[in-house]
Amino acid sequence: GAGVSQSPRYKVAKRGQDVALRCDPISGHVSLFWYQQALGQGPEFLTYFQNEAQLDKSGLPSDRFFAERPEGSVSTLKIQRTQQEDSAVYLCASSLWEGWPDEQYFGPGTRLTVT
Amino acid sequence: GESVGLHLPTLSVQEGDNSIINCAYSNSASDYFIWYKQESGKGPQFIIDIRSNMDKRQGQRVTVLLNKTVKHLSLQIAATQPGDSAVYFCAENKTGNQFYFGTGTSLTVIP
After folding, report:
1. N or C, fewer C-beta in 10 Å, chain B?
2. Interval B49-58: pLDDT, tens
C-alpha cells in the first residue's frame, strides 16, 4: 500500500524566502509528526497532530515555523523568512493510533537548502 | 562561519558476522523504544520495538535487549548482509507521543 509521501523532495530557497513543505500520511492514520534532521544527526521532534488538532508544538525552533493539518489528513509545514540554519531534511511520520505510542511510518523527507 | 557536522559512531563488520549496535538513553521514565534503520536519501524505517516491561525481543535476524538499570539498549543483527549497511537510530518515548532519537551508528558491511 501507499506509504507516507512528501513533496517537494528537494527545495532550494534564498535566505528570507518562505517555504511550504507538504506531507501526505498513510490513509486513516490519526497521528502525524514532523521532525527536523540536520546532517549527521538523528531526527529532532518538531510538532505532533492528532487528527486536525496540533497537540504539541514544543519542538518548533522559532515562531517562523508553523504547521497545520486542517482536515486531519494532509499536513503542511511552513517556514517563514528562511535562514541558513534552517537547512536540513524535514521528515514527516504518521501512526495509526492516538493513544499509546506506536510505530511511526516515515516519509522520504524534504531536503531544504537555504542559500 | 563554517559549520562542522557531528561524526557518527561507525561499525564495520564482515558479511555473515553478527553486529551489535549500542544506544544509551536518557530518561529512566521512558517506556517504549524503537530501533530504526535509515538508508541514504530515505526516511527512517522501523526495525523492532520493545516496551519497558520486557528485557528482550526477537524479530527476524534482529534482537533488541533492554537494560533499564543502566539505561542501555542494544540491537543485534545476525548474519549481517550488505543490505544491512545503513545508519541505525534508537528512539525513546519520553512523554505522550514524542520520540527522541539518538545520534545514530553507521554500519558498514564488508562483502
Report:
1. N
2. 999 999 999 9
